[in-house]
Amino acid sequence: MPDYLSSLNAKFSGAFTTSEFRDNKRVLISAEKAAEVLFPLLKCLKEECGFDMLAELGGIDYLNYPNATDRFCVVYGLTNMTTGQRVFVKAFANDPDPELPSVYDLWRGADWMEREVYDMYGVKFTGHPDLRRILMPHEFAAFPLRKDYPLRGYGERHNFETVTRADS
Amino acid sequence: MALTNMMPDFMIAPIDALASMLRKHSLWPMPFATACCGIELMATASSRYDISRFGSEAMRFSPRQCDLMIVAGRVAMKMVPVMQRIWQQMPEPKWCISMGACASSGGVFDTYAVVQGIDRFIPVDVYVPGCPPRPEQLIRAVLDIQEKVQRTGTIDAREFADRDTYEGPTSLATEIAPEQAIVAPGDYRTATRFRMPLN
Questions:
Q1: Across the interface, do A160 and B186 touch by the CB < 8 Å criterion?
Q2: How does pLDDT run across B174-195, given as a tens digit for each residue?
Q3: pLDDT 10s per residue in chain A (168 long)?
Q4: A72-79 and A86-93 as β-strands: parallel, antiparallel, unpaired?
Q5: For A64-67, which contacts have Cβ atoms below 8 Å and span 24 or more sequence positions?
Q6: Contacts of A154 in chain B (CB under 8 A)
Q7: Hey, is the C-beta of A148 within 8 angstroms of any chain B C-beta?
Q8: DSSP bridge partners of A101
Q9: Which of residues 78-97 of A touch B (CB under 8 A)?
Q10: CB pairs below 8 Å between A and B: how many?
Q11: Mutation to test the A interface, candidates B86, B167, B179, B182, most A Cβ within 10 Å
């Protein structure tokens, strides 16, 4: 058992599950518990277990995925800069208002990564200081990486004025 | 008989043809290079292919100084108002080359974010196929532009004034039902997208 699990178990027993894939160690937090457990759990990992670097933060849409129970997932890839140990925290969220606490207060680097997840999946991060779209235009109305969004979009790419020769 | 006796008192020369002849050998390209076609465009300007043999080597990155826009690469939906504004900033007479499969038709990028051909939004004179096109193909396109300038050019660019109808392909907007369409247009007059309040 990894040593961080003992301190997590002491504080958040029953609030999370673990799984493993090859050498990936995961901590999973279900959608019901993510709102209150996620932030203190990550804070504990950062301040007590030495996982001081947020190496990656990304989103997943599990719509129509076999055996999936929750729809959205945000993955926090943490690294212990002293030992090189890694852990992946997966927090789930559900429709109609997928919402998770922002980790901006723990890692400033989460700023743009959370904005990107919001832009592509529509997961709102409560407590984020400036949650705007980062890649898509501001007036864009959909979340393009959701599985129910069609590849060719809803016609956004055609909605421009045409410039003719006489205009210029 | 003295030479002066053979000259008429005044001459009416086809000054359009003269202007076009001068103009076509001095095209100033505006490289609107967004992707790998831009690398090929740079190769065309380099010594091996040497676009200056055809008088169009003076690439300027200011649209005010250019009269030939070369759109090289796929144009994302967010880029269209910028492209239209740059096109409008160029002084007349001006021409446009759509270089490569992506600029001409969207290429392999048939996704929500990539426009399916720049000719849906700005006028295009010459298309260059290829992914990316060889420099020789781009030089061929420059020669085609030169031929078009010689054939249709006028000194005051009046040939453009009556081309006020859309010349591109039919709109793709019909591929989805109107009630499903999201209207999210950009405005080239400001070239900045309006900010919506965060909800």
A1: yes
A2: 566 666 666 555 665 555 554 4
A3: 678 888 888 888 888 999 998 888 999 999 988 888 999 999 999 998 889 999 999 999 999 999 888 999 999 999 999 999 999 999 999 988 899 999 999 999 999 999 999 999 999 999 999 898 888 887 788 899 999 988 888 877 877 778 888 776
A4: antiparallel
A5: A64/A147
A6: 112, 176, 180-182
A7: no
A8: A126
A9: none
A10: 121
A11: B182
Chain A nearest-CA distance from B168, in A, is 9
**Contact between residue B146 and residue B24 where contact means Cβ atoms under 8 Å apart:** yes
- Which tens digit of pLDDT belongs to each residue from A88-114? 999 999 988 899 999 999 999 999 999
- What is the phi/psi pair of residue A7, to 5°? -75, -30
Give the pLDDT of residue B66: 92
Find chain A residues with C-beta within 8 A of B166's C-beta.
162, 164
Residues B56, B60, B61, B63, CA torsion sign: negative
Tokens of residue B77, six digits: 């939906």
Whether the full predicted model's pTM is greater than 0.95, yes or no, is: no
Q: Taking a C-beta distance cutoff of 8 angstroms, is the pair B51, B31 a contact?
A: no
